[in-house]
């Protein structure tokens, strides 16, 4: 890419939120480094990771933020949300309570960000089919109600992880393109 084209690069801040242990950090490490961590390190300390993707021949840097163990209700600071243009709201399909708490996380998101934030509802751990507590339909209909994208993922076996991020990134990109046209 020539010097004169550097100005065409994009940086999108994306936040990953949801209850503790739903798999947020593993979704992030799977997306950014294609790694899975079997020993959950609740406070890994890393604030964000950057992954470069290409859309329409343009370089897009996805700066994905991790709550890094501070996901107690209201403990996530406004600095975490500041400037976010995309969000993944994650629950664990094998733990019903994490799905019931999604509305709280959406409220939090709406308190700190405006409604144009491209948001994906993510039902993670879809590999745990035998102990599933949340039906696919429940996820789908909540997403429809709230006007969100929806996907089920497994950070463990890589199912749909890249797709989840890519849909959000594409939507942010489309939002920007619409604005600047
Ligand atoms: P966080 O607290 O939301 O960041 O969750 P972590 O990424 O630390 O994961 C919490 C626990 O769930 C860890 O023991 C992970 O190994 C496990 N885990 C994360 N994603 C998956 C998944 O897709 N499938 C399964 N079976 N376990 C997962
Ligand atoms: Mg974590």
From TrEMBL:
GO terms for molecular function: GTP binding. Its main location: membrane. The keyword Lipoprotein applies. The keyword Iron does not apply. Keywords: GTP-binding, Lipoprotein, Membrane, Nucleotide-binding, Prenylation. It is found in: Cell membrane. Transmembrane segments: none annotated. It is a lipid-anchor. GO terms for cellular component: plasma membrane. Belongs to the small GTPase superfamily. Rab family. This is Ras-related protein RABA5b. It comes from Forsythia ovata.
